[in-house]
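Justification of computing resources. Each target in the renewal requires a structure prediction run like the one illustrated here; the chain below, 165 residues long, is used simply to show the kind of job we budget for.
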Amino acid sequence: MLPITSRTAGSIAALAVAVALGGCTSAEPISEPPISASVSPEQIISGDRAIVELAQDLTATFGPLEFSSMRPNDPYPERRQGLALDVMIPGWDTPAGQQLGDQIATWVSEHAQDYRVRYLIWRQHYRPFPVDRYHGAPMQDRGSPTQNHLDHLDITVHPAGDGHV
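Resulting structure tokens:
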């Protein structure tokens, strides 16, 4: 029998939450095994524990949202490794939708350290964390609302165990 450390206890707790919520683990190796959890009856989020917990906490704070997470065939490694989360914004092209996106971006910024957030993209603005070293920059026009991150927030986290709390 292996000793239970605070790290393994956290992994066991995360797995218990995933199983209790109807999720499962994935066999794809990354720094910490990805987990899956339901954020709504229609949607299961997979990936790094921070991504799953972030989706759950965003749902608890802002109500039902549509997410996209792990994409095994994506050209970006963060997507393949379950380190990124897209948060789709309903009515993104309305003042109410833009306000919701701004509120979510502010909330994520205020809690970035809790989830190991590496960067956030919203409305063509790249915001890395910690913000005290660099305040971000506007992005070039990529040609569409999705590529310009007008209809969703893109949140990427650092892998567990790479020195980011």
